Predict the 3D structure of the following.
Amino acid sequence: MINIGVINKTGRISQADMRRAVEAFQIQVSRDLAPVYGVDAIIRSYNVESDAPAGTWFTWIVDNIDLAGLNGYHFIDNSASKVIGTGQKGYAVGANSGLPYGIVAYRADNWTIVTSHEIIEKLVNPYLDKQAANVDVDKDGNASEDMLMEIADPVQANAYSINGVQVTNFVYPEYYTDAVALAGRKYDYMGVIAGPKEIAEGGYFSFKRGGQWWQGFKTLNVVLYKKISEKKELTATELERLIRQIFWVVFGIIATSVLINYLIKKLRK
C-alpha cells in the first residue's frame, strides 16, 4: 500500500494537532476516497524524512512555498536540486526519486484543508497524467477538451469536518465521465455542485484545448476561462459579465436591507 508521510517543517503545529490531523486524513482517504476511486494509503507523520520507509510519498508543511500565490501543490520529484520553502526555512528535498511529493504553506486557518487537498489529489493523479479526454468543458457543445483530473480544485473552497478537523471537498469520477447531470447522482462528496464539469464558487479546473492549457475560475457566480500562459486580464465580455453580476449582488443586498427596515417599521407601529 502507498505510504504518505506528512512532515511539519514550521515548528508551529503541535504534536497533538498533527496527530489529530493525520487521523482525519486517514479517515478521509480510507472511508471517503477509496470506495469511489479505488485507491487507499497509510498516512503517518514523521519528524524527518529518514524516519519514513523507502518509497514514502512526502508532503511537507512549511512557512512559505516557492511559488507565490499558491497555498500548496504536488509535484513529481524529478530533480536533485528541488528546494521547498523560502528564505531561512528553505529545505532541499530533491532526490530525483520520481516519486509524487507535495508541499503546503502553513496558515493557521486552512493548513489541514490544503494538506488533505494535496494528499488526495496526489493519490488519484500522482504523476499528473490522468485526463478526461474529449469532453465539453466550457459547455459550448464541442467535446474537444482534455480535462486534468485534479479532484479537489473544482470545489477547493468547500470543506467538511472529520472529528473536528477540516478537510477538503472533492469531486467524484462521474464529474469527469458524465456528459450531462443525471437525476439523483452526486458529483462531489459534499453535494455542492449539481452536474459534471461545473465549478463551485471559489474553485477552478484545468484543461487542454488545441495543445494549449487553460483554466476556468468561478467568482461571484461568473466562470472565466484563461490560457495559463497568459496574464489574467479580463476580456471586455468577461468584464461586462462580472460588472453585471456585481451590480445584481449589490442591488440584492440593498433591496434586502430596505425590505428589512420596512418590515421593522411596520412591526413597531
Remarks:
- Residues 1-129 form a domain with the Collagenase (Catalytic Domain) fold (CATH 3.40.390).
- Residues 231-236 have pLDDT under 50 and may be disordered.
- Helices lie at 15-37, 111-124, 174-177, 236-268.
